[in-house]
Amino acid sequence: MYEYTVSKVYPQDRTTLAKVDALLEREGIRRDGNLDYTCAIQDDELNVIATGSCFGNTLRCLAVDSRYQGEGLMNKLITHLVDVEYGRGNLPLFVYTKVSSAKFFCDLGFQEIARVDDTLVFLENRADGFTSYLRGLAATRRDGMSGAVVMNANPFTLGHRHLVEVAAAACDTLHLFVVSEDASLVPFSVRKQLVCAGVADLENVVVHDSGPYIISSATFPSYFLRDDAAVNEGHARLDIAVFCRIARELGITRRFVGEEPTSQVTGVYNRVMREELPAAGIELTVVPRIEVAGAAVSASTVRRALQTGDWDTVRALVPATTYEYFRSDEAAPVLQRIQAAGNVVHY
């Protein structure tokens, strides 16, 4: 019997990558744009008969040629990828997969976190990962009406502050989730620091890490959705499915979002939230953006001003706590990162 082995596929190996793409296409998958490791199993004629990849702590783009299914190749792929991830120190691990494949991963010990209809399932390889996260949140539950805001805050601006103020005034408790994924020019540790400093005077605001569960656009998989519109909608529906489980734990009955009239992606999110949240007993409130000098306050504008050293614009668009941080020596590495970036708008 032929002994199949799993081998790394290097980015410069265009021949093998073309065979990987061909296999994925035959299995109804396209290679994700966000991958940092790819492997393959080849037959004795160097045809790619199985492949899998990673991005961060997620496993993705897993496929086995239909002619070789039932030979344990998927187990080999996942064992290899888990070893690679453990070697990188990536724990826990997550999988996004088609509904039809979910049982396979559950049989390997993965636990389902959320699913979207017949489109996709989000799983992790810890039995109590999400439930433990929910228990931690439950300890912050308070009496009265609770609302929620989710933000990246890259960095925290007067626009973010306005959204929090409006939401906090309408709630007994406002749960403010800061997206933990480190895929922004301003690192998570700094974003959370600036959020906490910027809302410290609002006594009914509780700040939370999103952990790996409120999903960022950087980690959301697009490889088995047919086009960009489907990707945006799938991302929104999965994110909201996870959020609804969080909301039940905290008794959240209202979610507040900032208005984004020029963003197609945010427009999709807001539409899906209007459709999905009421069914979970959650009211959606869209808060109009504030303007300074006739223009909406935007984190993109702040990043551009930081990149060019336009401190007058920065001062006009952020709370004093954010401004003071960026003028301090502590901010030097973050400023260097922003100044070295090309396009700072789409982070």
Topology record:
Blueprint: E1 6-8, H1 14-26, E2 37-42, E3 48-55, E4 58-64, H2 73-88, E5 94-97, H3 102-107, E6 111-116, E7 120-124, H4 129-138, E8 146-151, H5 158-169, E9 173-178, H6 188-198, E10 205-209, H7 228-250, E11 252-258, H8 264-276, E12 283-287, E13 291-292, E14 295-296, H9 299-308, H10 311-317, H11 320-326, H12 332-340
Parallel strand pairs: 4-5, 8-9, 8-11, 9-10, 11-12
Antiparallel strand pairs: 1-2, 2-3, 3-4, 5-7, 6-7, 13-14
Helix pairs in contact: 4-7, 7-8, 9-10, 9-12
Describe this structure in words.
The chain is 39% helix and 21% strand. It has 2 domains: 6-91, Gcn5-related N-acetyltransferase (GNAT) (Aminopeptidase, 3-Layer(aba) Sandwich); 132-340, Rossmann fold, CATH 3.40.50. It is of the alpha/beta class and 347 residues long. The protein has a 7-stranded mixed sheet with strand order 1-2-3-4-5-7-6, with helices on both faces. A 5-stranded parallel sheet has the order 10-9-8-11-12. The chain has helices at 14-26, 73-88, 102-107, 129-138, 158-169, 188-198, 228-250, 264-276, 299-308, 311-317, 320-326, 332-340, and strands at residues 6-8, 37-42, 48-55, 58-64, 94-97, 111-116, 120-124, 146-151, 173-178, 205-209, 252-258, 283-287, 291-292, 295-296. The chain has 12 helices and 14 strands. It is globular and about 70 Å long.
